[in-house]
Specification:
The protein folds into two domains: 212 residues, Alpha-lytic protease prodomain-like (Up-down Bundle); 84 residues, Alpha-Beta Plaits (2-Layer Sandwich). Helices cover 58% and strands 12% of the residues. The protein is built from eight helices and four strands. It is elongated, with a radius of gyration of 26 Å. The two termini are 22 Å apart.
Length: 314
């Protein structure tokens, strides 16, 4: 068999990961703005003695880090999309970066809780006017970032860009922590409730930890090749079994990149069809970019004619 004759069964493993994703440029802009504001808030929180401002800066930094990791991962995945060393491209770089960033953020959140507890028992002097001004500036920056991410260009569909939706949610969460910081500082400034400032530091740390733990769970599931979403597995099973005697004996679905999935299916039928026919039945809009169909003739009915066929298709 000549090498040329194999080309019809060979396929590309880039799966579109070599293309620039929608809104990536805007996400980069938001990352730059958010990182700059994070540095200002953390520096001013330390300078003016405000734990609420420090917590807001850390929370903003947690989301900026996640967005920065996502941008870096997209660039890395794009540049290595056709690298033969990666079986399915480098799409999991996003999950690896997110997992690493989340672990680091939990560590910083623990340090913040410890420092906030110390300041509840031993308050320090706070430069309220300056701290409030910086917190308000942070809120305005979050509003500007939300506008940048929420502005839709012609032909762009936000509901298909999950990273953009996540970025938008992070910015809104940052706005909430900015409001909490302003509330705490105002309460301390005008009502003498100085303990509100370190308390908001603890609240901010809890928010960062909760978000980070959720990110650890979701990214570790991808890194460990946990079974993909039930809705996709159900769609695959129903598509293959519909209108025939075929039954799915085994099914493995896992993520190979953002919203990209690979699936291996073992099909058993008394009258088995070619693997391509089962492949054509699979839905085209659920993120399946790499399929392997394994077909078996039902041994109970035709023990002498058991047949196994395999095909990998992109």
């Amino acid at each position: 068999m000549h090498t040329e004759s194999l080309e019809r069964w060979q396929h590309d493993h880039a799966f579109g990961q070599d293309r620039k994703r929608p809104a990536e440029s805007r996400t980069r802009l938001v990352v730059a703005i958010t990182l700059a504001m994070m540095i200002v808030e953390i520096a001013c929180g330390l300078l003016f003695g405000s734990m609420a401002l420090l917590a807001d800066g850390l929370h903003m930094g947690s989301h900026a880090s996640a967005l920065l990791i996502a941008v870096v991962a997209y660039v890395y995945a794009r540049r290595h999309a056709r690298d033969a060393r990666f079986n399915f491209g480098a799409g999991k770089a996003n999950a690896l970066g997110g997992f690493t960033g989340a672990i680091l953020l939990v560590f910083f959140a623990v340090l913040m809780v410890s420092e906030s507890i110390k300041r509840i028992t031993a308050p320090v002097e706070i430069a309220f006017d300056e701290a409030i001004a910086v917190a308000v500036l942070g809120l305005l920056v979050n509003g500007a970032c939300a506008f940048i991410l929420g502005h839709r260009h012609e032909g762009e569909e936000h509901h298909h860009d999950h990273n953009l939706r996540a970025a938008y949610a992070h910015v809104l969460a940052d706005a909430l922590t900015s409001l909490l910081a302003i509330f705490a500082l105002l309460a301390a400034r005008f009502f003498g409730l100085v303990w509100m400032d370190p308390l908001m530091g603890i609240v901010g740390a809890v928010l960062v930890t909760r978000w980070s733990v959720g990110l650890v769970k979701s990214t570790s599931a991808i890194l460990l090749d946990q079974q993909g979403p039930e809705r996709i597995r159900r769609a695959v099973r129903e598509a293959i079994e519909a209108g025939s005697d075929a039954r799915v004996a085994d099914l493995h679905l896992w993520s190979i990149g953002p919203n990209l999935y690979s699936v291996v299916v073992s099909v058993v039928a008394s009258d088995p069809r070619p693997p391509d026919e089962y492949k054509d039945r699979l839905p085209k809009d659920i993120g399946l970019v790499h399929q392997m169909i394994e077909v078996h003739r039902c041994a109970d009915e035709h023990p002498a004619e058991e047949d196994v066929r395999d095909e990998t298709a992109g």
